[in-house]
Amino acid sequence: MIYIFSLLAAGTAFAVYRNLKNIFGIYNHLSDADIHAYQTGQLSEDDRRYVTKHLGVCEACQQAMINHDPDEHVVESD
Ligand SMILES: [Zn+2]
After folding, report:
1. At CA 21, angle to CA 51 and CA 48, rounded to 5?
2. Among the listed residues 3, 49, 1, 2, the one whose alpha carbon sits nearest the alpha carbon of residue 26
3. Which residue among 32, 33, 45, 70 is least enclosed by CB atoms within 10 Å?
4. Which residues surround ligand 1, an ion (CB under 5 A)?
């Protein structure tokens, strides 16, 4: 019983963490690597959704997306 309860608590904490990450995450600017991966279709569905959401609110990254040349070699950061 205690085991099930702690599992539920851990699940709830994780869901809260994910939601906070989703809400505040859109204010993190996209890296060149993110933009490159987006243009070349290498992002997971979650990451693509994040990039699309961020582009909707961030003019600087829209501009970076327009200016980025997908044929250019990008060195992975992170
Ligand atoms: Zn941005």
Report:
1. 20
2. 49
3. 45
4. 29, 58, 60-61
What are the tokens at 61?
């990254």
* pTM of the complete model: 0.59
* Amino acid, single-letter form, for residue 37: A
Distance 35 CA to ligand 1 centre (A): 11
Cβ density class 1-31: b for 16+ within 10 Å, e for less: eeeeeeeeeeeeeeeeeeeeeeeeebeeebe
